[in-house]
Amino acid sequence: MKINGNTLLEGSRVVLVPYKKHHVPKYHGWMQSVELQQLTASEPLTLEQEYEMQNSWWQDENKCTFIVLDKNSWQSADRTEIDSMIGDVNLFFTNQECPTEAEIEIMIAEPASRRKGAGREALITMMAYGVQELRVTEYVAKIGYSNHGSLSLFHKLGFTEVSRSDVFQEVTLRLPISDDIRTWLGQETSHISKHTYEEHSR
């Protein structure tokens, strides 16, 4: 999705930037991890395939992706944007019967960045962006049985379980965007600042 191609969202713990070609090598390295393949239900790709996937997602108006950066690292003069990458957050618009429903996913790939609030801030920032910019009216999340951290996080944010699949070993959660949820998201992200993203050498 190109709509977020020039958007940078800056929070207190994380910074969200659009997924670009220069992010691909590090992303590809993450996805060689068997743990991350299992947690994200992904198959390993070659680097060339990863570049093709990034371009496909960039062109696909049904997918919105941000790379998650650690803000402290991103602000450090001796750290590059690539050094600061810790994960990604995605929206998928695949329900033709309800085009304003979005499946949301988050991955904090760097173990050292987990359980520090980065995932929560990135997730809430993306949820608010989806509601405010992409007119999302309901979120869906599909999370593996063994991904206890994500299940706990989504439950804490108000998602409720609607089904389980023993075949895919995953739980489906939903969160309709009521007026109360919309107000809450606005309050939770009032500190987020939006800037123009510019590719540079950092």
Briefly characterize the structure.
The chain is built from 8 helices and 9 strands. With 202 residues, the chain is an alpha+beta fold. The protein starts with 6 loop residues before the first strand and ends in a 6-residue tail after the last strand.
Q: How many angstroms separate the termini?
A: 24 Å
- Beta percentage is 25-35%
- Widest beta sheet: strand line-up: 7-8-6-5-4-3-2-1-9
Q: What does the radius of gyration come to?
A: 16 Å
Low-pLDDT sequence parts: none
For the secondary structure, the number of strands is 9
Structural class given helices, strands, pairing?
Answer: alpha+beta
Largest sheet: 9 strands, mixed
Task: Give a structural overview.
With 202 residues, this protein is an alpha+beta fold. It has helices at 24-30, 34-40, 47-59, 71-75, 81-84, 118-134, 148-156, 179-188; strands spanning 7-10, 14-18, 63-70, 85-92, 101-108, 138-144, 160-165, 170-176, 193-196. Strands 7-8-6-5-4-3-2-1-9 form a nine-stranded mixed sheet. Helix 1 packs across helix 3 and helix 6 (118-134) crosses helix 8. The radius of gyration is 16 Å and the shape is globular. Belongs to the acetyltransferase family. GNAT subfamily. This is N-acetyltransferase 9-like protein. One of its GO terms (molecular function) is N-acetyltransferase activity.
